[in-house]
Amino acid sequence: MLQDAPSPAETVLDVAGLAKSFTVARSWLGRGRKSLRAVDGVDFSIRRGETLSLVGESGSGKSTLARLCLKLIEPTAGRIQLFGRSIESLPPRAMRPLRRNLQMVFQDPFASLNPRLTVGQILGEPIRNFRIAPEADIAARVEALLARVGLPADVVSRRAHEFSGGQRQRIGIARALAPEPQLIVLDEPVSALDVSVQAQVLNLLGDLQAQAGYAYLFVSHDLAVVRHISHRVAVMYLGRIVEIGPVERLFSAPRHPYTEALLAAVPDPATRHRAGTRRRGTGLRGEIPSPIDPPSGCAFRTRCPLATERCARERPALMAGKDGHAVACHVRQD
Amino acid sequence: MTEPLLRIDQLRVRFDTPEGVVHAVNDVSFQVGAGETLAIVGESGCGKSVTALSILRLLPSPPARLAGGSIRFQGQELTSLGETALRQLRGDRIGMVFQEPMTSLNPVLTIGRRLTEGLRRHHGLSRRAARERVLALLERVQIPDPSRRLDQYPHELSGGMRQRVMIAIAVACAPSLLIADEPTTALDVTIQAQVLDLIGELCEAMGTAVILVTHDLGVVGDVADRVVVMYAGRVVEDAAVDDLFSRPLHPYTQGLFAARPNLTPTVAGQRARLTEIPGMVPSLRAGVTGCAFAPRCRAATAQCRAQTPLLRPFDSSGHAVACHHAGGDA
């Protein structure tokens, strides 16, 4: 976390025009099926040693996008390249050896660890499955993994329920590291943790990235955490990226009205204390519309204070500006 | 000094579990003045929700057991009050809003039915009169298209809408005190801001005092007048919000501020490591000897491990702290 984004280096993941639709039944009789565009044409790339965060409200499509990148679900359209190789249409069998490069850490460390397995079994399994090390070396590997995430070696024989939330998340991270991946998708990895433990896990993630150069795709609704951990940030709204850019620029000079509203909504002790007054009524009106029936033109226009007639007619494209800061807004990109 | 709206003294709550007695709340004392917003802040298991739920005796008993102390509301002792009298208070003079509006709304009752219940019970209104009052209430909590909502069930509403309905129920009888237990934790930040604004506006208009239970210091800074910080079932600090933010005295409070990533980093352009609070919250199974925070505290001494520090006034502004070494003195 201490160093800035790496210079143009190896691109680990590159996605273009990525989309995912789900078919939803409108009535319980199953007639009149409509489709829901959870992810609707998304482009981005992540480099080695870089953290790209996805932020947005519930229903913005950020978790679906994360799962698409791992091919946990199949895209409806678009391209996913891992080290320059297209993987979007690879069958599961061909995908399997590549999976060791793509790992995931889940939000809920209580639900994502098998309660029947010991820590040693949880961490040994991926090493064995991906043939990372010969059987004789697995115990030593597991011990090394535990040391990397700050757990004592004697926990190998214990089961997940014996640990606190923070320790379980360390086990979840160790499991993701086991096959020596290149990209780790972290879906709200600290949301279930208390502040004091959250700091421990965020520091650990930063240290691991500094040591091994992992690329992180970090999904979070907590903008303070995102500001802390990211190199770049993509803001999503109804399945599309509305703004993407380097973290400092996006937070200090947000361009999309939605990004501005998100930032204004965060209760921040630092800003409050400086202002000394209570901020009220500066937030967004209304809620995120249904993705089954999204607004025409710019999806954000129904809640946007700047919306014009053009916003209802024409969908704004994500236009790259300087310094890799891009925004999809008719009003703000002119 | 006049009697505050709510005065909690030396409250003790125990949970009798098969694995032993959990000392969930230990000698907790604080007051809430009329119209004041008090935040109770702390991490999981610190006893903040248990304290708040104890006020209206909403904890399942067993396992929960009131083991001592007093809760006085408008001069009336609640700990010895009968169940019938307590039910008269709930939803009338004291309203409640919970974290998860889906589980606290009955899924088989329409919003209209659920909302009119309290008014008909406490105020003896007719069905029609209650429905009209409820429509006005839903408008007050800024629910669009309120007459249609009355015939809907909870699952047909978004999380933010459900929390608005809970707030409408809680303030239907213009209570003197609203207890809100993590009311926005399950909501997106934009909706959280709307809901906090709404609670603030309504309570200000009615002169209602609020006890807000939260783990989020950001929320505390936005809405509270005064803050009680809890750790391991005890109050470790009690202060006006500005005093707490400008000069946190307890090492745990200081740790909470330092551990939290900020939206506006203090050093521009540089992301430092977060300051960790080492270790974790102690088990409350066994009674804790000495200061419960001592094992995680940099400044801990032999005295801290032997003797439990009591909450004592630190200065004349009403800033109180439970630490042997607060402010540098011994």
From TrEMBL, chain A:
GO biological process: peptide transport; transmembrane transport
Record membrane topology: Peripheral membrane protein
Gene3D superfamilies given in the database record: P-loop containing nucleotide triphosphate hydrolases
Cellular localization per UniProt: Cell inner membrane
Entry keyword set: ATP-binding, Nucleotide-binding, Transport
SUPFAM superfamilies: P-loop containing nucleoside triphosphate hydrolases
Domain of life: Bacteria
Keyword Membrane: no
Principal subcellular localization: membrane
GO terms of molecular function: ATP binding; ATP hydrolysis activity
rRNA processing in keyword set: no
Domain ABC transporter: 13-263
Pfam family, one: oligo_HPY
Cellular-component GO terms for this entry: plasma membrane
Family: Belongs to the ABC transporter superfamily.
Xref: PANTHER family: D,D-DIPEPTIDE TRANSPORT ATP-BINDING PROTEIN DDPF-RELATED, TRANSPORT ATP-BINDING PROTEIN
Alphabetical list of NCBIfam families matching this protein: oligo_HPY (TIGR01727)
Protein name: ATP-binding cassette domain-containing protein
Phylogenetic placement of the source organism: Bacteria, Pseudomonadati, Pseudomonadota, Alphaproteobacteria, Hyphomicrobiales
TrEMBL record, chain B:
A Gene Ontology BP annotation from the UniProt entry: transmembrane transport
UniProt keyword terms in alphabetical order: ATP-binding, Cell membrane, Membrane, Nucleotide-binding, Transport
Subcellular location as annotated: Cell inner membrane
GO CC aspect terms: plasma membrane
An annotated Gene Ontology molecular function: ATP binding
Membrane topology: Peripheral membrane protein
Record's keyword annotation contains Electron transport: no
Ranges of residues in domain ABC transporter: 6-257
InterPro entries the record matches: AAA+_ATPase, ABC_Ni/Peptide_Import, ABC_transporter-like_ATP-bd, ABC_transporter-like_CS, Oligopep_ABC_C, P-loop_NTPase
Superkingdom to which the source organism belongs: Bacteria
TM region(s), chain numbering: none
Family indicated by similarity: Belongs to the ABC transporter superfamily.
The protein's name in its UniProt record: ABC transporter ATP-binding protein
Organism (species): Vineibacter terrae
